[in-house]
Amino acid sequence: MKRLSISIVAFLLMTIGSFAQEKEYKPLIDVFVKDYNTNDYDDIYKHFSPSLKEELPSAKAKSFFVEMKEKLGNIKSMEFYGLDDNRLALFKTEFENNEVALLNLAMNDTGEVVGFRILDMPAPKDDSFKKMSIEEIIVTETLNLPEKGQYAIALIDNDKVTYHGFKNNGKDVRVEDNADKQFSVANLMTVFTSTVLAQAATDKKIEMTSNVNKYYDFNFNKNLKLPFIALANHSSFVPMLPETSSKSTMSEDDFLTKFTSTQLEEYLANDLTIDSANSERRQSFSFLGYAILGNTLSKVYNTPFDKLIQENVFNKYKMTNSSVSIPKKKKNMVKGISLNHKDVYPIQVGALLPSSGGISTAEDMAKFVQAEFNEKDAVLQLTQKPTLIVSPNYWVSLGWKIGYPFESGEPLYFTRGIDSGYSNYVAFNPVAKKGIVILSNSSSEAALNALDALSYKLVVKVFEDK
């Protein structure tokens, strides 16, 4: 369809109150269609929430609807289409110029509009891959990686693991023996940090709902309180990253890479703030939140963070080729591919390590996933316990996202990591005792799209195929 130059996309809330059924949306839709077709844009604006009005002044909202009317004409019909991935209502909308689009509407529990978008109608879903073998699927998506891009994949069925490795050589795709090769784990490290958090709770060293503040000998800025559980499930709303110091002569990347625990604590004392732009959401991912969590766990155990991960995760689950530190000798490490197609290695980070860092292999990650199946492992069972409901089909535990995509109603625990030159995806169903590990050495847009496609197809093949 013809693209509008502006769109109203602010504050798409993901609260349970927002997930009305079709009949609950109908009064607002009827009013919207009437007001839109009669050019009564001021009345539409009256239904905007205060937060949306703050982000979108009346004049800008009016120019959006004027442009929409000029390009698409009046609305001929609207009918409920379904819910998007965030469980927000979609309406199939037919306009006078015969364009058909999806209107994506978000409402809060008081019936106010908190988000509005016009989207293209999706193309019919292509499920032809279901007739392909797993190897054919992987080869197809490997072709979408840059030259030298590769996948190291582990498919887990209880105590059985099948490994697949493929590499794009530019002209073709070849089998690659890389199950024991090291890749950056990127922000998959948050799962390992959460495992240490669960260990601390199991050891009765902390209470999950207690604040981390008690482990510091100073007050946090603005006397803000940060519960362990909120940092772990990203509902604390601390910013994604600390702001680069105005006094620093380093680039932002260098500043964040070399960000120390001393700087972190100075930030907590003097600059800690809440990300108000995201405070109406149920959660907002934060590298900084996990840095605070890891720093606090070091205080709880009086042990360096890297040692906590080594002892409570890598050693415990026999992940012998995994490490928090980047070794000087990198013979066993797969080189990442930067956005400008240069070879890169994972970067050793400082205080942000609990949120992104370290290396592992498909073999080691398969061991970790298999450990998740052990119902007697109190620590990992605690990491699987839901702590936040983002939407009816999207929950969060400690480090893991939880989806419910299967007709059986069984959960899918999953996470995706992205680092400079690397990306990954890990998922498992603890009921069926099946899992997937995908490690890649590229994080370009094309590579991430390929990872999304590959993970979706493998989830269908591994978890749904009978």
From TrEMBL:
Residues 1-20 form the signal peptide. Residues 152-456 form the Beta-lactamase-related domain. The keyword Signal applies. This is Serine hydrolase. SUPFAM superfamilies: beta-lactamase/transpeptidase-like. Pfam families: Beta-lactamase (PF00144), DUF3887 (PF13026). InterPro entries: AmpC-like, Beta-lactam-related, Beta-lactam/transpept-like, DUF3887. PANTHER family: BETA-LACTAMASE-RELATED DOMAIN-CONTAINING PROTEIN (PTHR46825:SF9), D-ALANYL-D-ALANINE-CARBOXYPEPTIDASE/ENDOPEPTIDASE AMPH (PTHR46825). GO terms for molecular function: hydrolase activity. It comes from the Bacteria. Keywords: Hydrolase, Signal. The keyword Signal applies. Coiled coil: none annotated. Residues 32-116 form the DUF3887 domain.
